[in-house]
Amino acid sequence: MKLSQIIKPISYLKSRTAEAVRSASENRRHLVITQHGEAKAVLQGIREYEQTQETLALLKMLAQSSDSRRDGKHKPLHKAFSDIRRRIREKGV
Description:
Layout: H1 3-6, E1 7-9, H2 10-15, H3 17-26, E2 31-35, E3 38-43, H4 46-70, H5 77-91
Parallel strand pairs: 1-2
Antiparallel strand pairs: 2-3
């Protein structure tokens, strides 16, 4: 993807908002919006935004589990499953 196609001044967004939103949504492309020559914002479709958020959530979970393991805050797999089975029995599920 050429930078000239994804970097647009804010005036472009002001005059072609519908086109820019459609392009971001349908073509799964993002636009970098500049103001006074500096990158200020990114316009992206909702699917890409949701995918980015899901990816960040998974990365956060991985980092937290790695930290927990490093700090000794974990239990063996057989213990985790027995705890789950016990909770299910207690709830009568």
